[in-house]
């Protein structure tokens, strides 16, 4: 009975020798297995995530997009498998995470500036180092609002901007974004999308983005990771190598339209399966 209700015993899963990803791989996922309430979400799942790229994760409702990035980021425990970052474990890797719900992401008792500086202080950086990094972030985000305010005094878009600044403050090797635009209005979505693209062009930070919006998923991505229904597998990895910066004009270019159409076809095929 316990074998039905719980994750399989690790002894049940044959241990395959570790296979590194192709050159340019940042994150290697091997044999990832995750059960919820006795049902497999991921079973022996392998994936290579490239370095210095933006990968958008797209797939049917409930296929495990958020769970996937949360397992990679160490927020959700895995039942079996291995996840390495450039061959290192998560604890030796600097990561940043941007949550969908920015209202709960920032500490309400801290001024916005202290929220953003928090990971730097936690890492034991000196006041000089913290001030220098904060000045860089403020310049790169072209911040027009008062960072001395408390988060609840800011608009939703300003709070999400602050959340992204906080995630980027320690110069993460990988930035995880779980539907970062879904609670924002259109104007703020465009603003934050452009900021993310700028940061990416300046730093090349590997980004893993969960999106519900196909246009947004393709627009920012170097690769769209299309997932199947559960038990979840890779349906296809679609490469989209339109040069950056991508702009409003990109949205009507043939390459963009073709990538969106192909993603939609795969998505519909998987939803109907
Ligand atoms: N803590 C949990 N306990 C039980 N089931 C869970 C838990 N977290 C997620 N699930 C289930 O795992 C599946 C994948 O959830 P997840 O949120 O990762 O999917 P998603 O693709 O991001 O979903 P959506 O498209 O709705 O945002 C869903 O069926 C969900 O109900």
From TrEMBL:
SMART domains, per database record: AAA
Keyword Lipid metabolism: no
Domain ABC transporter: 27-254
Keywords, ordered alphabetically: ATP-binding, Cell membrane, Ion transport, Iron, Iron transport, Membrane, Nucleotide-binding, Transport
Pfam families recorded: ABC_tran
An MF annotation (GO) of this entry: ATP binding
Superkingdom of this protein's organism: Bacteria
Annotated GO CC locations: membrane
Classification via Gene3D superfamilies: P-loop containing nucleotide triphosphate hydrolases (3.40.50.300)
Name this polypeptide is given: Taurine import ATP-binding protein TauB
